[in-house]
């Protein structure tokens, strides 16, 4: 098996080492693991691509490359330059430092990489490690992902749904904010929504007197509706969420047609 890995935290991020371990276990001794990851952190870029300027790419070692671009850029660079048309059997994006449950998924460069792979017709999975009070004191905050990642990905590969639709399925996996031994299992869960929190801005004045704004996230320990991703994560379960890049509200098409006819 040939596996491509990428992330949005950057080529030197510890979560990339975790996903490399997961990929190596899945690929086996006869397989290949290729890394094309951002040269610098690209958190929050979603599915952005560097459409208006070029990006530098550098080989750092065998099957290991860094690109000055987004995770989606990295997938494109891998498919059409690094791998020279030899498509991977699977694309893994992550393991993100922090959850990509609920509305975080919409901002996530980790999901952006998986989404681009799916648009290119490839099986793709995004992986993220939820952090919280129970992971703060761990020597390895990625312990849950490191321990359970290969098994849940393998189960998806063997028994999951993989279609050939134009907007094909890809998967969003979030590991709960608990030690590996406390993980209760996995649950298929819809994307949730944190109703009492959101992204915002925080102003700061620089030493030179200029005013700057920092983007800040909301409280991450707020649960979503029962059975949805963040809720099951906070209850100790790995969430597995099937996704598509199609943004159409299919459930409203008929109602809208009737309303404006």
TrEMBL record:
Q: Which UniProt keywords apply?
A: Cytoplasm, Hydrolase, Metal-binding, Nucleotide-binding
Cellular compartments per GO CC: cytoplasm
Q: Give any GO molecular function from the UniProt entry.
A: 3'-nucleotidase activity
The record's catalysed reaction(s) read:
a ribonucleoside 5'-phosphate + H2O = a ribonucleoside + phosphate
Q: Which Gene3D superfamilies match?
A: Survival protein SurE-like phosphatase/nucleotidase
The record's free-text note on cofactor binding: Binds 1 divalent metal cation per subunit.
Q: Where in the numbering of this chain does the Survival protein SurE-like phosphatase/nucleotidase domain appear?
A: 3-195
Q: According to its UniProt record, which cofactors does this protein need?
A: a divalent metal cation
Family matches, as InterPro entries: SurE, SurE-like_Pase/nucleotidase, SurE-like_sf
Q: Where in the cell is it found?
A: Cytoplasm
- EC number(s) recorded for this UniProt protein: 3.1.3.5
Q: Does the keyword Cell inner membrane apply?
A: no
Q: Lipid metabolism among the record's keywords? A: no
Annotated TM spans: none
Instruction: List residues binding a divalent metal cation.
Output: 8-9, 43, 96
Q: Which family does it belong to?
A: Belongs to the SurE nucleotidase family.
- PANTHER family, alphabetized: 5'-NUCLEOTIDASE SURE (PTHR30457), 5'_3'-NUCLEOTIDASE SURE (PTHR30457:SF12)
What is this protein's function? Nucleotidase that shows phosphatase activity on nucleoside 5'-monophosphates.
This chain's protein is named: 5'-nucleotidase SurE
Q: Which organism is it from?
A: Cereibacter ovatus
What is the organism lineage in this UniProt record?
Bacteria, Pseudomonadati, Pseudomonadota, Alphaproteobacteria, Rhodobacterales
The gene name on file is surE
């Amino acid at each position: 098996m040939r596996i491509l890995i990428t992330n949005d935290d950057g080529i030197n991020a510890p979560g990339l080492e975790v996903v490399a371990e997961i990929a190596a276990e899945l690929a086996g001794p006869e397989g290949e693991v290729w890394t094309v990851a951002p040269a610098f952190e690209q958190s929050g870029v979603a599915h952005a691509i560097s459409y208006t300027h070029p990006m530098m790419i550098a080989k750092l070692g065998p099957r290991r490359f860094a690109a000055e671009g987004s995770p989606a850029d990295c997938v494109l660079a891998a498919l059409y330059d690094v791998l020279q048309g030899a498509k991977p059997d699977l694309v893994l994006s992550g393991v993100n430092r922090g959850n990509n449950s609920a509305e975080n998924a919409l901002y996530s460069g980790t999901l952006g990489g998986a989404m681009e792979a799916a648009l290119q017709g490839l099986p793709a999975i995004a992986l993220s490690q939820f952090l919280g009070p129970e992971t703060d004191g761990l020597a390895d905050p990625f312990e849950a992902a490191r321990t359970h990642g290969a098994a849940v990905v393998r189960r998806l590969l063997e028994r999951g749904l993989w279609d050939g639709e134009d907007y094909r399925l890809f998967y969003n996996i979030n590991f709960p904010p608990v030690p590996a031994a406390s993980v209760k299992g996995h649950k298929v869960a819809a994307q949730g929504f944190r109703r009492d929190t959101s992204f915002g801005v925080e102003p700061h004045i620089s030493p030179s007197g200029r005013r700057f704004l920092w983007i800040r996230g909301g409280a991450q320990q707020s649960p979503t509706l029962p059975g949805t991703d963040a809720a099951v994560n906070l209850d100790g379960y790995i969430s597995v969420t099937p996704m598509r890049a199609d943004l159409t509200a299919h459930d409203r098409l008929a109602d809208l047609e009737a309303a404006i006819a």
